[in-house]
């Protein structure tokens, strides 16, 4: 038996390692190579998301609300186990802010903190628990709106859902 298979999409002969295993096919492998399969799945999922955007976002929101504690616990555990990943994320964010606004995220936040030091109640629910600063416009770091953690996250979720 041959060590190579022909991909039905790109029509190239490739080694069996370049194909995913599949029990139902006679060869024991998928008919398309891993590269072509990944491209197909990515394109298909993007099309599916575009056509069902509202439903997908609503489903994600409902899932999050049902499993909030589990998601928080998993995220916290991941951050503890992979601190280098968290640092890399912050570095990427700082680079984006530096490119876009000419200063890092922390510098923007600290500028606002200098002028608005005292914590205030949430502007939505008036809770004083876990106050967070929100910058509607990063070019105006002194302009801060105070939210509790829950209202702040809801605000960002709604903004992301509307995009």
Which sequence of SSEs, written as H and E, runs from N to C? Answer: EEEEHHHHHEEH
Task: Tell me the β content.
Answer: 5-15%
**Tally of helical segments:** 6
Separation, N- and C-terminal Cα atoms: 53 Å
Helix content: 55-70%
Large-scale geometry: elongated
| Weakly predicted, low-confidence segments | none
Largest sheet: 2 strands, antiparallel
Find the structural class using helix and strand composition: alpha+beta
List key phrases describing it.
163 residues, 6 strands, two-stranded antiparallel ribbon, alpha+beta, Wheat Germ Agglutinin (Isolectin 2), domain 1, 6 helices
Draw up the topology in text:
Layout: E1 4-6, E2 13-15, E3 19-21, E4 29-33, H1 34-51, H2 53-66, H3 68-81, H4 83-101, H5 105-115, E5 131-134, E6 145-148, H6 149-162
Antiparallel strand pairs: 1-2, 3-4, 5-6
Report on the architecture of this protein:
The structure is a single chain. By secondary structure, the chain is α+β, with helices and mostly antiparallel strands. Helices cover 55% and strands 13% of the residues. The chain has helices at 34-51, 53-66, 68-81, 83-101, 105-115, 149-162; strands spanning 4-6, 13-15, 19-21, 29-33, 131-134, 145-148. The strands form three sheets. Strands 1-2 form a two-stranded antiparallel ribbon. Strands 3-4 form a two-stranded antiparallel ribbon. A hairpin with a 7-residue loop joins strand 3 (19-21) and strand 4 (29-33). It is elongated. The chain starts with a strand and ends with a helix. 6% of the residues are buried. The model has no long low-confidence stretch (mean pLDDT 83).
């Amino acid at each position: 038996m041959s060590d190579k298979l022909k991909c039905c999409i790109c029509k190239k002969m490739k080694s069996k390692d370049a194909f995913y295993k599949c029990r139902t096919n006679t060869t024991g492998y998928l008919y398309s190579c891993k590269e072509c399969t990944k491209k197909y799945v990515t394109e298909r999922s993007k099309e599916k998301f575009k056509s069902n955007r509202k439903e997908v976002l609503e489903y994600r929101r409902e899932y999050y609300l049902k499993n909030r504690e589990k998601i928080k616990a998993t995220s916290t555990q991941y951050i503890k186990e992979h601190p280098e990943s968290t640092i890399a994320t912050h570095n990427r964010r700082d680079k984006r802010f530096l490119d876009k606004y000419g200063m890092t995220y922390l510098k923007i936040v600290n500028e606002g903190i200098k002028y608005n030091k005292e914590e205030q109640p949430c502007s939505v629910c008036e809770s004083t628990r876990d106050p967070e600063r929100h910058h509607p416009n990063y070019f105006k770091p002194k302009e801060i709106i105070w939210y509790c953690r829950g209202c702040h996250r809801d605000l960002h979720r709604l903004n992301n859902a509307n995009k």
